[in-house]
Structures are given as C-alpha cells and as structure tokens.
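Hypothesis: this fold can be encoded by more than one sequence.
Test: take the structure tokens below, design a sequence, compare later.
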C-alpha cells in the first residue's frame, strides 16, 4: 500500500532517510514527555522518532496516511522498538486543543510541514509558546530563512520578530527538491526553535503583535509614519527610534517601543 500525495494538502513526501534522521536528531528531547509530529505521511520521519524518549503523537488530516500508519507502518515495528507511547490521530494541528490533549503538560513539535500552512503552524506555536519548549521542521527555504532573519535583512519581518520574541531560531540546513515525492518546485529549509529561558515579555503581548504588524505593513516608511494609525503623542514620536524603519529595529527594540507606547497611552488618558 502506498499513500498518494495530495496537492490540495500541500503534501511532498520525504524519501531521504538520512535527512529524516537529521531532522529527528535536531531536538534535545529533554525536559518534556510529549512530541507532536505534524503531517507524518508514510512515516519516513516517524520511524526515527519512535526510539526517542518521548510519547509520540503523529497527527495528520489525511485519512489515507492515518490508515497507512495504523496498518502497514505499525506492522514494521515490534513493541520493543518503540520507546514510549505511539498514537496516530486524525486531527488538524491548527484546530486541535493541544493544551487539553496533553493536560497542560509541555510538548515539542516536529514535522515535514505542508508548505501551504507552515507559517500558520509557526503562529500557532507562538500562541502556545508557554507549552512548547522546542520545535523543528521543514519549510519552504525562503520561509525558514524569513523566520530566522535578523534586523537589517530584506526578509526580516513580522514572522521573524514575533518568533524571536519567544524563541532562539536557527536555520539548520537546505534540502533539494529531488528527495521528495513529488518534488516541490523550490528548495526547502530545516530550522529549529528553542524557547528562551526567560520567555516572559516585558511588554503587553497583544500590543506588541499589533505594533509589529502595523509597522511592517508599511515597511518602507519610518516607524513614525507607519504607526500613525495608533495616534501616538508628539512627545513620544519625537524619540529617535521613530526615525528608523521597522527592519532596522531588533526584537528587544520592538519590545521597548511597545512599552513606551503603552506608557504613553496611560499617561494621555
């Protein structure tokens, strides 16, 4: 039995076992008991996760993949080869209540992600950062580079800042199209996110997200002009930071800017 890759699900099944092993080995598996694999497909990555010291939940929206993993795939492994609990679930990572699933315990995330929802997966991870200490996976190369980009880069943007507010990001390696079935039309990139030791923000999270998104929606303008809709006081916008463009601000500067905006709003009530 083979699973046919479905275009509408953005499926490109990894064939290269060495790359699958590298992805599986990119997490520390330390400090948490649970791991979610998103989009396991035919289990090429899954097989290397079974021996890791975590309880594995392989999660896919594709019923054909679920059937394959529960029959053909499971038949290849004896109980002795599976280190912890292994569960295959037909569920959507983006809509699943993961906090309830793991009873508010921490869990890591890994996968060869469908490219059409990969950015949404990152934003869901950011939303659940208090529960997700580690994350590793395959993206379209440009998306992976954008997430890991630093200030001053043309690719540095909303996803970069919001991810790096909570996680240390690392671009691990590039993967060519020929190791997938079917081959995508672009190169892929594998990255790792490790939650910062002090991931509690020194500013209002909701306001930070608003400031970052508003600023980068007009990224060629100065912060002063791009944040005009926030109706900030003239005293605040006289600060030299408002002369910069958003791609020139580090994550810590965005956090400091958000604090100033919050303080300004309170003082002008």
């Amino acid at each position: 039995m083979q699973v046919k890759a479905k275009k509408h699900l953005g499926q490109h099944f990894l064939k290269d076992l060495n790359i699958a092993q590298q992805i599986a080995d990119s997490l520390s598996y330390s400090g948490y008991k649970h791991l979610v694999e998103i989009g396991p497909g035919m289990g090429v990555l899954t097989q290397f996760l079974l021996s890791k010291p975590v309880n594995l939940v392989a999660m896919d929206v594709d019923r054909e993949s679920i059937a394959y993993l529960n029959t053909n795939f499971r038949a290849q492994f004896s109980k002795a080869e599976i280190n912890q609990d292994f569960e295959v679930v037909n569920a959507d990572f983006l809509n699943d209540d993961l906090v309830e699933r793991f009873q508010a315990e921490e869990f890591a995330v890994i996968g060869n992600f469908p490219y059409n929802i990969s950015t949404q997966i990152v934003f869901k991870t950011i939303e659940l950062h208090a529960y997700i200490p580690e994350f590793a996976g395959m993206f379209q190369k440009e998306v992976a580079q954008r997430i890991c980009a630093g200030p001053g880069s043309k690719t540095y943007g909303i996803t970069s800042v919001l991810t790096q507010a909570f996680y240390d990001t690392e671009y691990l390696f590039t993967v060519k199209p020929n190791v997938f079935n079917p081959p995508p039309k672009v190169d892929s990139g594998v990255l790792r996110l490790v939650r910062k030791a002090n991931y509690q923000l020194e500013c209002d999270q909701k306001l930070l997200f608003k400031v970052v998104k508003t600023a980068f929606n007009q990224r060629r303008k100065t912060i002063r002009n791009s944040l005009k809709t926030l109706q900030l006081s003239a005293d605040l916008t006289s600060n030299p930071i408002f002369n910069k463009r958003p791609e020139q601000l580090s994550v810590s500067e965005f956090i400091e800017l958000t604090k100033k905006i919050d303080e300004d709003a309170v003082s002008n009530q």
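The chain has two domains: 7-195, 205-267. The beta strands are 13-14, 34-38, 55-60, 86-90, 107-112, 134-140, 167-175, 180-181, 188-195.
Hypothesis status: open.
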